[in-house]
Design a protein that fits this description.
48% strand; four-stranded antiparallel beta sheet; 8 strands; globular
Length: 86
């Protein structure tokens, strides 16, 4: 079952997805003009991240990862479009 959400861009680390043991997968679309840093884990930063997403980039979380996902943007413009499959 897909669940969609929009997370507003922020220059402070924010939770994109809470940990969810029932997660089967998730997708992220950076609908912002700003670069963002996405992290599998807590407190994303420009020096502690999993993947760097430029404007309009898309990312799929690896199968089996059910932990928290956080993100931080270079500037607070736009949103992250998140779809979680459970």
């Amino acid at each position: 079952t897909p669940t969609t959400s929009n997370v507003s861009a922020s220059t402070s680390s924010v939770t994109l997805l809470a940990a969810n043991a029932d997660r089967l997968g998730a997708t992220f679309y950076n609908d912002s003009t700003s670069t963002m840093y996405l992290k599998h884990g807590s407190t994303a930063s420009s020096t502690s991240f999993t993947v760097k997403l430029f404007s309009e980039n898309y990312y799929e979380i690896p199968f089996g990862y059910t932990g928290i996902v956080t993100g931080i943007w270079v500037s607070a413009t736009g949103t992250m479009r998140v779809t979680e499959q459970t």
